[in-house]
Design goal:
About 25% of the residues lie in helices and about 30% in strands. Strand 2 and strand 3 form a beta hairpin. The termini are far apart. About 30% of the residues are buried.
């Protein structure tokens, strides 16, 4: 009888041990599944968060000669350690202002990164948008010269990290295109919501035309470069640097 009791007890102990091991195995498998799921989710978020909104400002020369008669479409590309962005339209007839009726804010990318679409434009006709009206950059009735123009545009493009080069190119195919006499360019890569990002960069201007692009390579990243050469890209990591560059380039 005692042997029977001992056998039943041992069987119960073995059963409890097996149940405990099975439970531990299930918990371990569940933990591994959650870990893989989280890793996949993080990877997906990282892959999806590739675009940022670049806040690009420029100032035109105040001269009333070639600089304010620029006609054409100018694109911009940013380069950094992560690569180079696709070319994006920066300006149409810079140093001129579209005076045609219907040119409203909905025609341009917003500060929150909303790129114009049929839905976002609504009833706006956007008469100075060359993607909607081919050749509009040469319709002089829709444009007025604007010497010393200061303007800000929002460019949605890939996040390439700290900028090492900014390139501006004229895509116009007509010889009538004038020269953009750019005084200075300011690129703010920081988020308007959080203030976090890759910093603020400046390019000392130069004349840009179909035969002469701006190829602004990084030449400094402190306020030490307070008077850069034309076409030089400067990265600011201090408030005093931004103040100096704003004063130098007319911002």
């Amino acid at each position: 009888r005692q042997m029977c009791i001992r056998d039943r007890y041992q069987r119960r102990v073995r059963g409890l041990l097996l149940a405990t091991m099975a439970l531990q195995t299930r918990i371990l498998m569940l933990a591994m599944f959650v870990g893989v799921s989280n890793a996949t989710e993080v990877a997906t978020l990282d892959e999806g968060a590739t675009d940022i909104t670049y806040r690009v400002s420029w100032t035109c020369s105040k001269h009333t000669t070639v600089g304010t008669t620029s006609q054409g479409i100018f694109t911009i590309q940013f380069t950094g350690p992560k690569g180079t962005t696709t070319a994006k339209t920066l300006a149409v007839n810079p140093c001129q202002t579209c005076t045609a009726k219907g040119d409203v804010s909905a025609c341009y990318t917003s500060n929150t990164g909303v790129v114009p679409s049929d839905e976002s434009r609504g009833a706006a006709t956007c008469p100075c948008d060359p993607t909607l009206h081919s050749g509009v950059e040469f319709d002089e009735k829709k444009w007025t010269r604007d010497p010393g123009q200061h303007r800000q545009m929002f460019i949605v493009a890939e996040d390439v990290g700290d900028l090492t080069k900014v390139e501006i190119t004229s895509t116009s195919s007509r010889s009538k295109t004038g020269v953009w006499d750019l005084l200075g360019l300011r690129v703010n890569t920081n988020s308007q919501k959080t203030g976090l990002g890759n910093g603020v960069f400046y390019v000392k201007g130069k004349q840009i035309s179909p035969s002469e692009a701006l190829d602004g390579a990084l030449c400094g990243k402190t306020s030490e470069t307070s008077n850069p050469s034309p076409g030089c890209l400067v990265g600011c990591n201090a408030q005093v640097c931004e103040e100096e560059m704003n004063a130098l380039l007319g911002f």
